[in-house]
Amino acid sequence: MIQAPLPGFSLGSHRIDPPLVLAPMAGITDLPFRRICRRYGIGLTVTEMIASRAVEQGRERTERMAELDDDESPVSIQIAGSDSKFVVEAAHWAVSRGADFVDINMGCPVKKICKQVAGSAMLKDEVLVARVIRAVVEAVDIPVTLKIRTGWDEPSKNVERIAKIAEDNGIQMLTVHGRTRSQMFNGHANWEDIGRAKAAVSIPVIGNGDVVDGESALEMLRVSGCDGVMVGRAVQGNPWVLQEVHAAIMGLPKPAAPTAEERWTVVEEHMQHLAEHHGVRFASKMARKHVGWYSKGLRDSAEFRGHFQRLDDWEQQLDVARDYFLALDDALPLAA
Ligand SMILES: Cc1cc2nc3c(=O)[nH]c(=O)nc-3n(C[C@H](O)[C@H](O)[C@H](O)COP(=O)(O)O)c2cc1C
Q1: pLDDT tens digits, 26-67
Q2: Which residues participate in catalysis according to the annotation?
Q3: How far, in Å, CA of 34 to CA of 125, rounded?
Q4: Atom 10 of ligand 1, nearest CA residue
Q5: CB 25 less than 6 A from any atom of ligand 1
Q6: Between the CA of residue 76 and those of 23, 85, 120, 164, what are the distances in Å?
Q7: Does ligand 1 lie within 6 Å of residue 209's CB atom?
Q8: Containing domain of residue 115, as a range?
Q9: For ligand 1, is residue 36 a contact (CB within 6 Å)?
Q10: Is 302 part of a structural domain of the chain?
């Protein structure tokens, strides 16, 4: 058993307390969704990954990805890249956009990113890892953190060495997703491997991968001995899972599932934030994904999704979603 409440820790002039982190997820944890998730007991948010080359190109979309709420703190802006020059520029840009921390991504498994030897492909080149980390740490005055997988593939797993390199080169917090790149999202996250990284360093280590509720959060912490927990896919359509994980790590009773009305309030607010942030055209596409997730496991959800996914008029989407969510019975459980 872990000792609840799990203590927070300092990162630069900030406290990560509770040590519960919302995972960065491209196309999902934009400002609107982070705003929703922040109500449920998280101690740190991270933006979606922003490629350093995209920063250089100065696209409007990139700026939008780095938009933070005025009261969103502590918050990391996550950057990726393997060319120190561009990564350093991106780090300066992140500081200028109000980041409390710069998080470097060395975990992304996507082919397009790995082909440029960025994301998780960097784990194969420990010299490169050290070079990029050192360049960013020397360039900015705020804490630099790192997110990794456990290695490229099973035979070349090097999570302990990467953790040590990170610490030696000035990384102040490490997040480990307990899968190798070759696993993509298959199989299980190996929480023992996260524990190997934790044992190798004295900086705070956040464990990530397959935490889906309070119980799995406690088990991951027990197995890995980590300082904190990051939750990703389980929050899709279910930000309430965060309050469950929060309660578990604080030693509090499990909170009740949201009522149908509470659920609709969140869905509606999320949709409104999406429209404000992205404009209705893009928000409409995003809503198909998110609202579909919110309905998962609920009554007649397949039928609802089939209908909702075909709508492209924003007002109609709002009406159909409202009718569906408000007609739900409060006793319905959330999807497992
Ligand atoms: C759709 C999607 C997008 C993701 N985008 C990012 C990203 O931008 N940066 C990052 O570090 N990890 C990203 N991840 C990985 C997650 O942060 C997390 O490490 C992974 O999903 C494992 O945690 P989970 O089992 O709690 O989901 C992404 C994952 C998913 C499913």
Answers
A1: 999 999 999 999 999 999 999 999 999 999 898 999 999 999
A2: 108
A3: 33
A4: 24
A5: yes
A6: 11, 20, 19, 22
A7: yes
A8: 9-250
A9: no
A10: yes
Cα(322) to centroid(ligand 1), Å: 29
Amino acid at 70: D
Residues 175 and 301 occupy one common structural domain: no
Q: Tokens 């919302």, residue? A: 22
| Torsion, CA 147, CA 7, CA 170, CA 166, rounded to 10 | -40
109 cis-preceded (ω within 30 degrees of 0): no
Between the CA of 48 and the centroid of ligand 1 the distance, in Å, is 9
Domains of the chain: total: 2
pLDDT in tens, 206-222: 999 999 999 999 999 99
- Do 111 and 196 share a domain, yes or no? yes
User: Which among 140, 12, 157 has a CA at the least distance from the CA of 87?
Assistant: 140
B/e letters for 170-205, b = 16+ CB within 10 Å, e = fewer, are ebbbbbbbbbbbbbeeeeebbbebbbbbbebbebbb
Residue 269 corresponds to which amino acid? E
